[in-house]
Structures
1.
Amino acid sequence: VTTAISTSAEAVVACWKVLDELIARQLPLAASSLQYKQGANEPVNLTTELGKVKTKLEQGQLKTPFDLHAEVVGVWRQCLDKAPQTLLYSLACMLAQIFDELY
């Protein structure tokens, strides 16, 4: 049963839960399924970048779910721009799909 979110505070809590699920559970699972290991030379560190988004959310810099969505999509775009046709890009695509389902 899905319940409606009626206040902006509830929306922020829901966004935090989605982002936390993505970072804490889905990122490690997806990386494992692709046998992806973060290298020192990777152009984008997904854990770091998603952590920055989470910090912005916690500090109140992201006011709406749309702000959160835009920030997370920006992380996926970094992977597309900086690491096309790599495992990092594949991981970002997988996580983007999971994020959209959770969001």
2.
Amino acid sequence: GQRRAQATGSMGEPSAVAAPAAPEEAKDLTSKDYYFDSYAHFGIHEEMLKDEVRTKSYMRSIVQNRHLFKDKVVLDVGCGTGILSMFAAKAGAKKVYAVDFSGIAEQA
């Protein structure tokens, strides 16, 4: 296990940060732990959300293809903040399941 500490992001919102692992815990960390921990921090999600070209491209792709989402069940694996899930709901999805393994899910 990895311990979590609470911090404040650049905009004053809480963000989860990994507390340094105790020496005996460090040897137990795997590449999976480092991968998911990198997405637990608000900063990476803030950066992606502020990328207007990226975010609006995803939004247009989903909303302009409503016929692919209308009345469908959508599973967004690795949803992060859930922005794409919200776009799917806006496009008429009957139900949207947003799933994420990293700590960002607790903040989103």
